[in-house]
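Predict the structure of BFN domain-containing protein.
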Amino acid sequence: MIEMNVAGIALDAATRLPIVLLKDASERRALPIWIGQTEARAILTALESQKTPRPMTHDLMVSCMDQWDIDLERVVIHSLQDNTFYAVLTLQQGDSKKEVDARPSDAIALALRMDSPIWVLEEVVADASIPVDKEADLAEKEEFHEFIDNIRPEDFIQSRGGSEPSAESS
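Done. Here is the predicted structure for BFN domain-containing protein.
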């Protein structure tokens, strides 16, 4: 799994739908997830640490979880099927741990409010992410090809220190 952070909310130029953008720690891969207007507002409210006069739905969830001593251990975005992302909340209360199905947008809004990590399975990142730093990706690819081009069979032989093994006498 790869830990991701919320980079922000953007608008899709073609559809005018909001996109939550997650980035990995190296900021070399970004994962765009299309969401609704309400979900974008909930995420932006948390990103900007805005206080609303009355609790929003995600604030209400946080209050309930606090009252019942439930921690949001982490959010995991685990799959992408038919252009739909799937996530689970890992909740912990004392020694009990449960996973609860959630929309990624709701999971992200809760994670931001509860300062919980957001993880994405490698397969999802590989399938749906976009490169942010194409030059770094290209340099890494060239370095790997250079390594492959210059490797010799002798490089795989483990050298042994010291002398040849001696024959034991009985």
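The mean pLDDT is 87.
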